[in-house]
Write a structure and sequence with these properties.
43% helix; four-stranded mixed β-sheet; alpha/beta
Length: 406
């Protein structure tokens, strides 16, 4: 076994540095309990117990919905566990097409295309688009997700990073580019670490003024916002003004996979050229069937969304009344500022050990150093009593850790 190769030694040093900075990532062994969600079973320090989880991205508990689970089971019985190949070889079934049709309709677009994850849909689609012609200029929000950044950097383009949600800075950069050179504006609707929302109408106004196409990541909004779950773009009546809408099936829909939706020729071009689609085994039929059931349910049951936002606003209010250092948020995401990587991890671990609860610590590079936090995503099944217990636990821990509480 190699021990003194420069690469191995470099890995050892990098890991030592990460540990010294307090941002080494330790995975908590969480087993989701479908019949008791948001409770999970955790194994830690040689013991197993059930804990209350506050940070799941299964925002609406659709991953544990009986109809969604049954759709997956039935598809497995009929079509088996796996797709059997790429969409081109053996993996394109009628159920894949049905889900793409459902997603296109959700966003009011001609067509949609499934990918194996939201990360892949961003990376592969953006790379394919920017490779379509020379001299692209990409205008990317400073807080865009890594998957978007990797997709943008994976193709030849001049990249202009504009200040987060800053329309004036974006326009200044757009105005500096010759009118006849192709432009793309890439941004998200809900930014998942701060919980803020992009000014979409203003972004579209600039796109139309400077003849740019738009690429919107709705990953943290689909299923939850809008009359049928089409995202913030549906809620704000801007979907038809956007060139491409990207989303995921792994968060509010509780399943797995990503997709893009847009004009038929654009989606067909991505289907025909995106390596991340062409060379990847298709999503398993049980996953697709579950996602299809989830999308259809959320289109017709707005009360699930209403319950989510009631829970989020209630937790925000309880945090504020207790003087906890909550970051202001426009969305369902509730960040709690800690400001230090080691202490964020320690607060999270103490929540588990002492109070039987879990909230994810968010450290660099996901957020900037010095802005480390815990991220809470209250869902429909979190009760007021659960929230009161959480607040008391956080007050106890933060005070003992000498983290400022108002």
């Amino acid at each position: 076994m190699l021990t003194n190769h420069p690469f191995i030694m470099s890995c050892d040093k990098a890991l030592a540095d990460i540990r010294a900075q307090g941002r080494y990532r330790r995975f908590v062994a969480l087993e989701k309990l479908a019949d008791r969600f948001p409770y999970y079973r955790v194994t830690m320090e040689g013991r197993t117990e059930d804990i209350l989880v506050w940070s799941s991205n299964d925002y609406l508990a659709m991953g544990t919905d009986p109809a969604v689970i049954e759709a997956s089971i039935e598809a497995a019985r009929v079509m088996g566990a796996g797709a059997g190949g790429t969409r081109n070889i053996a993996g394109s079934s009628p159920i894949h097409v049905a889900l793409e049709t459902e997603l296109a309709t959700l966003h009011g677009k001609d067509a949609a295309l499934l990918f194996t994850s939201g990360y892949v849909s961003n990376q592969a689609s953006l790379s394919a688009i920017i490779s379509s012609m020379p001299n692209w200029h990409v205008f990317s929000d400073a807080q865009n997700h890594n998957s978007m950044i990797v997709g943008i950097k994976g193709a030849p383009a001049k990249v202009h990073v504009f200040k987060h949600n800053d329309v004036a800075d974006l326009e200044q950069r757009l105005a500096s580019i010759p009118a006849d050179e192709p432009k793309l504006i890439a941004f998200e609707s809900v930014y998942s670490m701060d919980g803020d929302i992009a000014p979409m109408h203003a972004m579209c106004d600039l796109a139309e003024k400077y003849n740019a196409i738009t690429y919107l990541d709705e990953v943290h909004a689909v299923g939850m916002y809008g009359a049928t779950g089409g995202g913030v773009s549906e809620r704000d009546g801007v979907a038809q003004r956007l060139t491409i809408i990207e989303g995921t099936l792994a968060k509010a829909y509780g399943c797995h996979g990503g997709y893009v939706a847009g004009q038929a020729s654009v989606i067909d071009y991505i289907r025909s050229t995106a390596a991340g689609f062409i060379f990847t085994t298709a999503l398993p039929p049980p996953t697709v069937a579950a996602a299809l059931a989830s999308v259809r349910l959320l289109k017709t049951e707005p009360e699930r969304r209403a319950r989510l936002f009631d829970r989020a606003e209630t937790l925000k209010r309880k945090f504020d009344e207790a003087g906890l250092p909550r970051l202001k948020s426009e969305s369902h995401i509730v960040p709690l500022m800690i400001g230090d990587a080691a202490r964020a991890t320690e607060v999270s671990m103490r929540l588990i050990r002492e109070f039987g609860m879990y909230a994810t610590p968010i450290n660099y590079p996901t957020v900037a150093a010095g802005t480390e936090r815990l991220r809470f995503t209250p869902g429909p099944k979190h009760t007021d009593a659960m929230m009161d217990d959480l607040v008391q636990a956080l007050l106890t821990i933060l005070k003992s850790e000498r983290i400022k509480v108002a």
